[in-house]
Amino acid sequence: MTTSPEIKLKELLEEFGVAMLVTHNSAGDFRARPMALADVEADGSVWFATDRNAEKVNELTGDNRAAVTMQSSTKFVSLTGTASLVDDREKVRKLWKMAWSVWFPGGKDDPNILLLKVVGKEGEYWDNSGINGLKYLIAAGKALITGKRAELDDDPKIHSKVEL
Fold first, then answer.
1. 4-18, 94-108, 136-150: segment of lowest average pLDDT
2. Beta bridge mates, 49
3. Residue 155: exposed, middle, or buried by beta-carbon count in 10 A (0-12, 13-18, 19+)?
4. How far is CA 28 from CA 67, 79, 128, in A?
5. So where are the chain's domains?
6. 66: closest CA among 110, 106, 101, 20?
């Protein structure tokens, strides 16, 4: 059964627990920081919990463009879109993870918790795990022998850009 690139992107997003969130500071420069993923929605939107006094909140208030990147040794995901700050106590309770107590000692009712949702405009992934890794090695070996560039971008199991 063939999985669509949209489904593949969502499946890959769900495999990660931490992502790098990239925002723009007031000077327009990029700023990246690791964030624990709180949730992944069916449309590929991702949720994070943050402190309402964090610098990223100010950055997103000035410029809501954001990028989210994830990486393992064989899988890579990039998501670009817009971020919004969501002050929804019920959603916080639904998404709450005990590990967040390190940052929010007041628990799920800590008044400093603010949710951050990134709605993707475009996603892209590269999956070199399992059989895909073998396909990559074969293509790379062939490229080395022939002196021609390895071409794997036409296989949506390995790589695809997804409009969201």
1. 136-150
2. 115
3. middle
4. 14, 19, 34
5. 5-127
6. 20
122-150 burial, b if ≥16 CB within 10 A, otherwise e?
ebbbbbbbeebeeebeebeeeeeeeeeee
Q: Which fold has domain 5-127?
A: Pnp Oxidase; Chain A (2.30.110)
Q: Which two tokens stand for residue 89?
A: 């106590």
For the chain, give the number of residues: 164
SS3 107: helix
Supply the Cα-derived Rg of the chain in whole angstroms.
18
pLDDT digits (tens, 9 = 90+) for 100-120: 999 999 999 999 999 999 999
How far apart (Å, rounded) are the C-alpha atoms in residues 125 and 3? 14
Cα(80)–Cα(31) distance, integer angstroms: 14
Query: Is residue 50 over pLDDT 70?
Result: yes
Which one-letter amino acid corresponds to residue 117?
K
Residues 6+ apart with CB under 8 A from 98: none
pTM of the entire predicted model: 0.89
Secondary-structure percent of the chain, ordered helix, strand, coil, rounded to 5 = 30, 40, 30
